[in-house]
Write a structure and sequence with these properties.
This protein has about 270 residues and is α+β, with helices and mostly antiparallel strands. About 60% of the residues lie in helices and about 10% in strands.
Length: about 270
Amino acid sequence: MTSDPRPHAERSHDSLSGALPAGLPTAAAMHRRPLAGGEGLDLLVVPMESPAASASMTIDVDATAVTVILRDWLTAAADSRSAVVIPLYDCLVAWAPGRAAIGGPPDRLAALEIAVVEFATREAELREAERRAAVLLEAIDGDLATDESDDGRAREHGPALASRYREAVAIGRRLSLLASAVHAPPVHPPTLASQVGERLRDRTRLVERHELARERGELVERVAEASRQRALELSVARQQMGLEWAIVVLLVVQTAILVVDLLSRRGTP
C-alpha cells in the first residue's frame, strides 16, 4: 500500500494517533481539519489500490470491507440517517457531521480531501445557521404572547426583541453568503472533486436545507421586527397616556384653584 502522498512534516502535524478504526490498511491515517465556527472535522484517509491496477479479484472484497468499517465509524458518532457513503471512480467518500473518510488511489486523495473539506465547511456553516434559526423560532411564541396590558413587561421584552431581530438579520446575511456555494451550477468539464462535491450536496439535500433555513430566518426577522414595533408603539402609547393624565390632573388642580379664588373673592365685603 502507498502511504499518504503529502510531505511527512505535514502528516505528522495533524495526524491523530490511536484513533483509527480496526481493520483498515496500515497506511490509513487520521487528520483533524478545522472548519468554520470553531468546529473540526475528523478526516480518515485510506489509500487503496484501484481494481485496474490489481490482478487479484480480492480488491472488491477489500473495498466492501472498508466501506462497512467506514460506515460503522461514521454512525458511531452521528445518526445513521446522516451518514453518506459515495463510491466514485475506484474511490470512496464517506461523510457524517464532524467526520469524513476518503479512500482511493494515492494520486486522487488530495483532490478528494479538498472536495470533502470544502463541502464539510459549507455544511457546518449551514447547520449552524439552521440551529440558530431553530432557537429563534422557539422564541416566537413568547414574542407573540407579550402581555400588552403590562407596560413593565413590554419594556423588559424590548431589548430581547431587538437582540433576536439582529440575530435574524445575521443569519440571513450568513445564508446569503452561502447561497453562491450551495446553488453553484455543475462544473464543466466535470472533475473528480466537483463530482464529489455535487453528490455530497445532493445526498445531504443541501439546497433544500438552505432554502428552508432562509425561509425560517425571514419569518423570524419579520416576527421580531413586528413584535419590536408593537412593543415600541405600546411604550409610546403608555407614555402619551401618562402625559394626558398629567395634563388632566393639572387642569383639575388649576380649575380648583380658580374656583377657590372666585369663592374667596365673592365672600369678601
